[in-house]
Write a sequence for this structure.
């Protein structure tokens, strides 16, 4: 892995007597450099604890929640587009813009959920 260099901060992978490690260095003055060597899991645990990155379980719950909500939204937009196409009174009102917009939105929403693995079907609307 390449060394990360950001202004006066560096991070690089190393191998010490205990196995894989990460060395973090920060230059404070002209010649004063502070360094710490930590295990990769320690860095991950610190980042999770501070909220910089999500833990795997938290990320899985968030992804599941967002997938479920996006699926529900997709199905509702599809239902709206179908309803506008089949039940609108187009003899008295020009709904061509609303119908086209709803259908296009339904297609976009369907694309958003196309790659999701588990899509729970919505109960049918009565």
């Amino acid at each position: 892995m390449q060394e990360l260099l950001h202004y006066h901060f560096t991070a690089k992978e190393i191998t010490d007597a205990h196995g894989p490690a990460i060395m973090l260095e920060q230059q404070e003055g002209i010649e004063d450099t502070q360094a710490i060597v930590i295990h990769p899991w320690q860095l991950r645990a610190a980042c999770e604890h501070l909220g910089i990155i999500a833990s795997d379980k938290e990320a899985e719950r968030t992804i599941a929640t967002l997938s479920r909500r996006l699926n529900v939204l997709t199905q509702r937009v599809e239902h709206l587009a179908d309803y506008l196409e089949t039940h609108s009174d187009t003899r008295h009102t020009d709904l061509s813009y609303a119908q086209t917009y709803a259908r296009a939105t339904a297609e976009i929403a369907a694309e958003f959920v196309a790659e999701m693995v588990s899509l729970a079907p919505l109960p049918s609307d009565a």
Q: What stands out?
A: The two ends are 57 Å apart (CA to CA). The first strand starts at residue 4 and ends at 6. Residues 4-49 form one domain. Residues 119-126 have pLDDT under 50 and may be disordered.
